[in-house]
Amino acid sequence: MSRDRILSSLRTSLASSRQWLAAEAARAPHDPPPHVMPPAADLAAQFADELRKLEGRAYLVADAEEAIETIGDLLAGRDASQAIAWDLEQIGLPGLEALLEARGVALLDPAENGVDRKHRLQRLEPARVCLSGVELAIAESASLVLRHGPGRPRLASLLAPVHIAVVRRGQLVRGLGEALATLRARYGAALFAETSNLTLITGPSRTADIEMTLSLGIHGPPEIHVILMDA
Fold this sequence. Notes:
Order of helices and strands: HHEHEHHEHEEEEEHEEEE
CATH architecture of the largest domain: 3-Layer(aba) Sandwich
Radius of gyration: 22 Å
Strand order of the largest sheet: 1-12-7-4-2-3
CATH topology of the largest domain: Rossmann fold
Mean pLDDT: 89
């Protein structure tokens, strides 16, 4: 059958069923459910458990002091001397700047736009660690929701092999639907005013070939560490 005959047949079929398809689309719900799993007593514990299943690590800490100590241990364990990060004010963790200075960890400029973009990216390649905050964290899937923009570069959660994210208990939501509703209520039409990117990260980068051989770190960091603060 020729290409023209195939396309003509498809057009005829769509035309005959268009009214029914439109009615079905109108009846279908257009918002995702707020959650899909049974309620958990503790969203932080649920997040940590789900992230563990994805081969990520969550650290439940009481306050900023304990968070800084945990980040320091992670940096030391990976011999990190360079990092790509959100603006530290955007992460909002007291003592983080002092920790990086004490550990001798230099923050690299993640700006990669312009005519020398390739060389800028190559200069970032030695960084061992990414540091970021989050907009929200989804307990059911252990997903991090990152809204990028000024001071919140996308590369600070993408390029280095180790991603350390700081999450506060108040940023936890139960499911994807609740996360989207929260973003809609918080930003409305301005959600993408400063950026075209809203990233959801669910565990370390995982890629499988046709034989289902799993590889970590092909399209992003193979290590995800989430510092979950009570405060």
